[in-house]
Amino acid sequence: MIKWLGWCLLCPILLLAACNIERHDIVIGSKNFSEQALLAEILAQHLENKLHQPVTRRFYLAGSYICQQALLAGRIDAYVEYTGTALTAILHDPIQSDRSAVFQRVKSEYRQRFGMEVMPSLGFNNTFAMVVRGEDARRLNLKTIDDAAPYTPQWRAGFGYEFMERPDGYAGLAKVYGLKFKEPSRILDLGLLYRALLSDQVDIVAGNSTDGLIAARDLAILEDDKHYFPPYQAVPIVRSDALNRFPGMNAAIEELVGKISDAEMRRMNYAVDGEHRDIAEVAREFLQSKRLD
After folding, report:
1. Architecture (CATH level 2) of domain 128-222
2. How far is residue 101's CA from residue 46's CA, in Å, rounded to a whole number?
3. How far apart are CA 275 and CA 197, in angstroms?
4. Of these four, 96, 168, 233, 241, which has the most CB atoms within 10 Å of its CB?
5. Residue from 257, 275, 262 nearest 42 by CA
6. What is the pLDDT of residue 293?
7. Which residue has the higher pLDDT, 158 or 23?
8. Fold topology of 22-125+231-289
9. In this model, does residue 100 exceed pLDDT 70?
10. Matching CATH topology for 22-125+231-289 and 128-222?
């Protein structure tokens, strides 16, 4: 009985001590699609090269909410988010279209509410993209979402779960453009969206503007001519305590600012999704091309 009581008293102390052990590795996370894993790998390799610190990778952590919770809990030290997603899905702010205003709002609120630093953009904007088959776009002369709206009552749509649920997603888009579909939208895994479109299972999907498969598979992006979607600049979000624990981390991440264009991101995404190349290899080649290796 005394031994059991002793363990009961000791366990909370051990747990508390374990929580206070300072990690000596940097932990980089990502959401659950190829672009996210690529960006996280670029960040991880660059930090390894510059800081000579071990970097643990925790990729494919599902969506923004899970990554945010992992940051708050200290399970990861950084991941790359998109400003429009941070604004609407995490901060629950109204949609804004001004790129600079969105960035400043996100940066200020993340620092004040969460004690996190939002770094400047890596250089590209990955907005939601309404995508149709190229042959349909040419046949119907579709350039914009507004052009497509009259045809949607005969179309089937396929969207990811997050797009259906988030405040800058389907509900608002349908209202702005008056979209109505032939049947309830199919909820698809992000990796299956284009496969479903190409196999005629659906007629329109919500992809991402930097998806490498769009041009390679003769797909067409419809312009958001009513400017519904906010800007989605790719920005590293980092725990402030990690920047304090690892001198030089801030400067290393800043070396990546503005280094990735929309076209470069599409090419890297295609290398992974279209050519099935290894993510670490593609990331390494990118860093070498920028003389950051």
Report:
1. 3-Layer(aba) Sandwich (3.40)
2. 29
3. 19
4. 233
5. 257
6. 81
7. 158
8. D-Maltodextrin-Binding Protein; domain 2 (3.40.190)
9. yes
10. yes
